[in-house]
Every structure is written in C-alpha cells, then in structure tokens.
Design brief:
This protein is mainly beta. The protein is built from no helices and 17 strands. Strands 1, 2, 3, 4, 5, 6, 7, 8, 9 and 10 form a ten-stranded mixed sheet that branches. Strands 11, 12, 15, 16 and 17 form a five-stranded antiparallel sheet that branches. Strands 13-14 form a two-stranded antiparallel ribbon. The protein is elongated and about 75 Å long. Residues about 10-15, about 180-190 and about 190-203 have low confidence and may be disordered.
C-alpha cells in the first residue's frame, strides 16, 4: 500500500519557551478530515495542546500526516503549514473517489481518533444549482444556429462534471418540440448546448 506523508512546514520562527505538546490532547477539526471532492483541495486544522490540556500559543511541533491511497494506487499528497499560533493547517487534493485513511501523529504517537477516514466523492450536478448563460436562452434568429452555456454545479455550488443533457425548445403556442442536443466541448464542468430556429417553427 502506498503511503504519502507530510511533515510540518513552518511559516515563522518559534518564539519563547513553552510546555511540551501532548499528542493525546491535540485536536483535529475541519470538514476536509472526513469528506472531500475529487480533484478539489480539502483542508483541516490540527490544534496543539500541552500537558496541562491548554492550547499552545505558538508553533514548532513536528506533526506527521500520512494518507493511505485507495485500491487504485493513486496518491493524495498532504501539506502541513505551521501557523505559529498553536494551529497547523493541512491541505490535500485527492485524485479519485474512495475511502482515504488519514493517520496523524506527533513524535510517533498518534493523535486521539487517528486514523481518520476521509470519504472522497465525485460532485454530482444538481439541476437547480446549475448556471445557464447566453442570449440564445431568450431569443434566436430563424435559420441560424444559436448557443448557450451550462455550468454544472453540485448541491453546494461547487463545479461538477458535465453530464449528457436532453435539450427541448417550446413553440409559442405551448406545443413542446424536442430539439436534438449537441454534445458540446466539456471543459471545467461546462458544456455548450445549441438550438436552431427555422422559419415557421423551432426544433
């Protein structure tokens, strides 16, 4: 099993003396610890606590984060940044959907709750969140091909993968007519659809 690990990267030098950080008192918070979307950056935060169970006011701890890859052997690299205030920001960008165990330790001792499980999913488009753009949505010229654009979004408004669509136009008299949909170029979660108008009717 491939393991991708990251050690703490400091932003600023540590200032002053402090009580040692204790792994079992440290806390991990943030949605990126338990859920993420494919090819989207996710993050969570490690909060360092000392032997008195008080949060540290500065940095300097050597936390270690290891993300086990899924069955396909893909990798999810993690980056840890020491914010020098007792917190550490961890970011990762999973390349494929699946379950990713995330192990977090300090000097070889696992933090409470480690390893955690991050569920990575592919964003699914939701109709009422998708964005439609283009003049062809409201007007068209007879015998001329017109275009409009659809930006696919999931339930949280994030960019989602494009899906095949059935595009319909409706005559002024309310009679529905099915227009053959065009498989447009799919880039960054967007698809271009087309509709054409003919003299006397629209298809």
């Amino acid at each position: 099993v491939t393991v991708v690990a990251a050690a703490t990267e400091r932003k600023t030098p540590q200032m002053g003396l402090r009580a040692p950080t204790v792994a079992r008192w440290c806390r991990v918070i943030g949605t990126g610890l338990t859920e993420a979307s494919k090819m989207e950056t996710a993050s969570f935060t490690i909060e360092a606590y000392n032997i008195s169970n008080s949060r540290q006011s500065n940095g300097g701890d050597a936390f270690f984060v290891a993300i086990r890859c899924n069955a396909q052997g893909t990798r999810a690299r993690a980056k840890i940044v020491d914010n020098d205030d007792g917190t550490y920001t961890v970011t990762h960008k999973p390349p494929s959907p699946g379950k990713y165990p995330i192990a977090i330790s300090l000097l070889g001792e696992p933090l409470s709750g480690s390893p955690f499980t991050c569920i990575v999913s592919t964003p699914i488009p939701k109709a009422d969140k998708c964005i439609l753009q283009g003049d062809a949505l409201t007007k068209a010229t007879a015998r001329k091909q017109e275009h409009f654009r659809i930006s696919f979004r999931d339930a949280l408004g994030r960019v989602a993968h494009a899906e095949e669509l059935d595009v319909y136009v409706e005559r002024d008299d309310g009679t529905p007519r099915e227009a053959p949909h065009t498989k447009g170029q799919q880039l960054s979660g967007q698809k271009e659809a087309s509709k054409s108008s003919r003299a006397g009717r629209s298809d």
